[in-house]
Amino acid sequence: MNYRHAFHAGNFADCAKHALIHAIVAALGRKPAPFRVLDTHAGIGLYDLRSSEARRTGEWRDGIGRLETVEDGPLLPWLSLVRGFPRGTYPGSPALVRAMLRPADRLALCELHPEDHAALRAAFRRDARVAVHRRDAWEAIGALTPFPERRGLVLMDPPFEAEGEFARLADAMAALSRRFRGAVQAAWYPIKHRAPARAFLDALAASGTRDVIACELWLREPTDPARLNGCGLAVANPPFGFREEAGAILAALHARLDEGEAGGGWTVREVVPE
Ligand SMILES: C[S@@+](CC[C@H](N)C(=O)[O-])C[C@H]1O[C@@H](n2cnc3c(N)ncnc32)[C@H](O)[C@@H]1O
Predict the structure, then answer these.
(1) Which of 4, 24, 89, 111 to mutate to test the pocket of ligand 1 (most atoms within 8 A of CB)?
(2) Of 104, 117, 188, 237, which one is least surrounded by beta carbons within 10 A?
(3) pTM of the model
(4) DSSP for the chain?
(5) Can 14 be counted among the known catalytic residues?
(6) Closest ligand 1 atom, residue 94 Cα
């Protein structure tokens, strides 16, 4: 396991993922019944943007670093929460979701890397609403679902360092939609060039998973397979109104993060109907 998210925290792809996740969790919180979030690939939770890893790549400067002056619009609910964390830090998905839990809501986190798991465990020690597991994400999805609350979000955010990660993700989503029909599912994927992302969405459509949308942002024409040109979030069973909200979020992000290269854009589109 070579991937360490500390090098990438707060980059454009994190901003897209986290702004969208914020909208999903906010929607879950609009109903009084408790919900649970399972974050299958959690990372360490909260990132120090002054760390040697973050400084080495500087990726956050072209992501969250470009959003410092946003004062209104569809990014503000997420950014207000981010700005509530200490200056120079950036909340990854565990810290973000934890900040949105109500007293009866729960968060389960899985992280396999020994050092990142230790950091995650330390960050949420003695937090009765959060359970931290050192277990394989794909195995955990079967073991930890359906939720006792019967509602919530399963967030899948693999590092895409291993062969076959797209296929594993499509299989996991299909299996989960069979065992826990009511769950909202959100799966992050890279867009380096178009073909693998398109094949993933085709596989999802063929798998029988229902009600899936793809939310994508790309900063340049995705033709260079060696570069992270864009990213997507496949959302199954999206909350009411999320599709429109996702479009507004991605449009606002694109306007701020576009680097002036040819061929950038965003889309929110139906992959499989309800
Ligand atoms: C992209 S990062 C997660 C970032 C995090 N979701 C966020 O948004 O802040 C992926 C994480 O998954 C972990 N990981 C990789 N394979 C895993 C597996 N099979 N089960 C659990 N965690 C895994 C990696 O160590 C890494 O920390």
Answers:
(1) 111
(2) 104
(3) 0.98
(4) ----GGGTTTSHHHHHHHHHHHHHHHHHTTSSS--EEEESS-TTSEEETTSHHHHHH-GGGGTGGG-TT--SSTTHHHHHHHHTSPTTEEE-HHHHHHTT--TT-EEEEE--SHHHHHHHHHHTTT-TTEEEE-S-HHHHHHHS-S-TTS-EEEEE-----STTHHHHHHHHHHHHHHH-TT-EEEEEEEESSHHHHHHHHHHHHHTT--SEEEEEEESS-S--TTS--EEEEEEESPPTTHHHHHHHHHHHHHHHH--S-TT-EEEEEEEE--
(5) no
(6) 9
